[in-house]
Every structure is written in C-alpha cells, then in structure tokens.
Amino acid sequence: MRAFLTIASLFTGAFASPIEGRAAAPQLFPVGTYNGIAYGGVVVLDPLAVASVVPHSKPNQIGAAGPIDLLQLGSVTLNTYATLKRGAGTTSFDLKSFWWGLGTDTGSTAGLAQGGTISVTGTYVNGSEVPVASFSFAPEGVLNQPLIFATLPNTFTDLAEVDIGVATSAPLTERTYIALDDVTHVNFS
Prior knowledge:
By secondary structure, the protein is an all-beta fold. 0% of the residues lie in helices and 51% in strands. It has strands spanning 2-6, 29-34, 37-45, 53-54, 61-64, 71-73, 76-78, 81-86, 92-103, 116-124, 129-137, 145-146, 148-151, 159-169, 177-188. The strands form three sheets. Strands 1, 2, 3, 5, 8, 9, 10, 11, 13, 14 and 15 form an eleven-stranded antiparallel sheet that branches. The chain has a two-stranded parallel sheet with strand order 4-12. The termini are close together.
C-alpha cells in the first residue's frame, strides 16, 4: 500500500503545548515516530519572538543541536545531525523535500542565523549507501530568518534511513543548530 504524506504543518496541533501562548520556557521534547518515520536526534521547538530561524509553518519546527554529536559516513563528516528511519509498519520510504535553516542557538532562544551547508545521505533498504546531496543556506540577516526549501534528487527512494547533517558552517560547525520543517515523504508498507 502506498501512502503519500505531505506534512503541511509539521507537529502543529499534534504536539500541542500545555503552556502554549505563555512567555515561559520553550517546549522541547523528542519527536519520536511521526507519520511512519522515526525521527532521531531532534526535538520539537516552539521558538520565542526572537530566534535565529523561524518555522516555515508556525508555530513549531524540529531541531537538531549538539556539540558532541559526530557521525562519520565515509568521506563525509556530519557534525550535528538528524536521523529519519522507517517506523513500525513502514517497509521503505522516499524522501521528497523539506524546509531547513541553520543557526548558532537551540532555535528556542535568541541566537544568530548562520550560513553553511548540509549533507543528506542514507541507506537504501538493500543496505547500499545513497549518494550524498548537499544544500547551502545563506541567510540575509541574523535574526528571525526564514527557512529555505530543499528538494531531494530522485535517488532518495526505497530508503531505510536518512541522515541530515551540518557539513560546513561558520563560525563553529560543531555548534550549529539545524531547523527542519514540513518534511515530505512517501511511505511504503
């Protein structure tokens, strides 16, 4: 059975915050499995009024941050990264697109948007590696910058797992935060 999942507003409503609308601390909690995909290394974020990057579909986005998260995949080293894996009942998936941006903060506190590149790689269901796709982010400012759209090449089909990680950024690659929103994928079961 083929199910097309366009996540029009990633985590909006489905993860309603009990203190939504307050100026209290932002909500941070693991994503877990969402629409047949198990998300690893990311939390749901509800940015405050001033942040490095803002969600594409408000109020939430997901984010990966961590100065000690290192993943070595052949010749590509991804410092901060997010992992998308098949969830229960999903035999494979095709990754189509997502909105993304980079910053030096957690996405929940005031910080600075920063330029850089991400690498997207993964593993096919047969165990072979997906060719790396790279995308660049060049914000026009440093606060409340919009996420940008990335369309994956047609090689991102029949997937078991995908890793989205910081390849380069300034000033500190290993301290860079990745924001993701509106992830579009096709699941197979």
